[in-house]
Amino acid sequence: MPAFTTDLVVPAYNEAENIDPLFDALRPVVGDGRPIRRVVLADNRSTDGTGERAAARGARVVREERPGYGAACLAAIAEARRADAPDAIAFLDADLSDDPAELPGLLAPLIDRSADLVIGQRLARAEPGALEPHQRFGNWLACALIARSTGRRYRDLGPMRALTVDALDRLGMADTTWGWTVEMQFKAVTRGLRVTEIDVPYRKRHAGRSKISGSIVGSYKAGTKIIGTIAQLRRSESGSSADPRR
Question: Most CB contacts within 10 A, which of 92, 116, 121, 142?
Fold first, then answer.
C-alpha cells in the first residue's frame, strides 16, 4: 500500500522571529519517512522577511497578497496540490502556540481511516495565560452557535487541525478571513464528515504579539466575522443533512 502523505500548511504574516524556532521544532516530524512530507508556508503580505527565512529552512513558500487567514490557507492548499498532491493537509500557526510534536497524534485517525477531520482541542491542556478570557468566551459562543444550528457540540475552534484531501473537496472551503475555522467545522457537520477532537497542549506564542487575540479590538473584529459566518452558513447549508452524532 502506498505511504499516506501529509503536507503541513503554515499561514504566516510577519512571523520572521518565529520561523527558526518553528522549523527547529518541526525537524523531527518533517521529511522522508516522517509524518509530514513537506511544509507549505503562505506568506500573507509579510514585510519582515518571513517568506525568505522559511524558504531558507526548506519550506515551499507561496506569497498571498490578499489579506486574511483563510486566503493564506487557500493559497497554500493550492500550492500543495499543484503537483504531487498529498493525501491529507495539516494546519499549524507559525507562532509555536501549538506544539508540532502533537502532529503525529493528530494524523493517526486519518491514517487509520477512523476520521475525516481531526481538530486539536486546546481548552483542557492550555497553560495559564495562553488563552485570554475573551478568547475562551469567543470559542464558547461560536461553538454554542454551531451546536444550535447543526446539533453538533464542538469544544474549540483550535487552529491546529488535519483533514484528508477528499474531505477538503467535500467542504468546498471559501472563506478568506477569520471565518475559516468555523466554516470548516460547520460544513463538516452538514456535509457528513467524521470529526474527532483531540486534546493538545497550548502555550503562549513564542515571540511577538498576536494580530487578533493580542487586542480586544482585534478579537472583537474576528468574533464579529465568525458570528456573521455562522449566520451565513446557517442559511446556505440549510438544505444539507446535519447529523448531531458525528
Answer: 92
Question: pLDDT tens digit string along 31-40?
Answer: 999 999 999 9
Q: By the 8 A CB rule, do 237 and 190 touch? A: yes
Instruction: Quote the cell numbers at residue 3.
Output: 505511504
Q: Which tens digit of pLDDT belongs to each residue from 148-179?
A: 999 999 999 999 999 999 999 999 999 999 89
CB 110 within 8 A of CB 164: yes
Q: What is the pTM of this model?
A: 0.90
* pLDDT greater at residue 220 or residue 116: 116
Amino acid making up residue 68 = G
